Amino acid sequence: MKKLLSLAMLTALVAFPLSGCITQVGVNAKNSTADWNSMSGSLTVKYTDNTIEDVFVATKKGLDQLQFFRTGETLPKDGKSGSITVYARAIGDMNITVDIYTAKNTKTKKEWTQAVIKYGTWGNLQESQKIVSAISENLH
Asked: What domains, with CATH codes, occur in the chain?
């Protein structure tokens, strides 16, 4: 009986972190909702009418307008496909990463650009929403 109880507790402890909570949250008028992942502390937003390059440029402008210190970026090796990551820092030495990539619906073959924002080690929804708003403001 004791082994069975221990096994049940172990299963629950392993399953809990793997059952992350993704919640739709409001962002702004251009992107009405985004997905907040409370386990990873990241905010994911779709840009259906913009290319990866458009979102990249808007991200750099938005981070500058919010007065974050951009520390670098990784670009695709071939310059055409893949993902782009923009790194920045906020007051208090908080890490900020914005991963930008093209996503695709396998059934409809429709593509869009997606940005995943993470503010700090554990994430910060409010600050991530500010970054999404700044990016969206800079998209044409």
From this structure: 21-137 (3.30.160)
